[in-house]
Specification:
The N and C termini lie far apart (73 Å). The protein has 7 helices and no strands. It is mainly α.
């Protein structure tokens, strides 16, 4: 009951401010203020305020929000652990079975490597302006062996 009275008072004050604003010939602003001031009365009339007041002062509702929050935290934790372990239990079991096969090859391997390859020959440095711009990047890539 107090919430409805407060909402009505806020709406009445807002409509009063809208009338004063319209008197000052700022009609667009006055209509906007009137629109905002009618929102609390509309919420009271639809029953939203009563529902919010019942929820805000209900320990059962707050306990429900706590349970929902705990559920969300548990979902996040299990998701992060699953990502670190590499998938679900079925996926890990299938990967272990594949790894124990003697003829198993890495999924992305197209041909066996023959050991350490030689580095590709570097091309001669050109003096053009475009190559000068990329010389720093090229030096970083060479440093990392790319």
């Amino acid at each position: 009951m107090i919430a409805e009275t407060v909402c009505s008072a806020v709406s009445a004050a807002g409509l009063g401010i809208a009338v004063i604003t319209a008197y000052r010939k700022r009609f667009l602003a006055a209509v906007r203020i009137a629109a905002y001031s009618l929102i609390p009365v509309g919420l009271v009339m639809t029953g939203v305020v009563e529902w919010l007041a019942g929820t805000a002062f209900s320990p059962t509702a707050w306990a429900g929000f706590g349970v929902l929050g705990l559920s969300w935290v548990l979902f996040v934790i299990t998701r992060s652990v699953e990502r670190r372990r590499g998938g679900t239990r079925k996926e890990r079991k299938a990967a272990r079975a594949e790894a124990t096969r003697p003829d198993a090859v890495a999924p992305a391997a197209s041909a066996p490597s023959l050991g350490q390859g030689s580095r590709p020959a570097t091309r001669p440095a050109s003096t053009s302006r475009d190559d000068d711009d990329f010389s720093d990047i090229e030096a970083i890539l060479k440093k990392h062996g790319i």
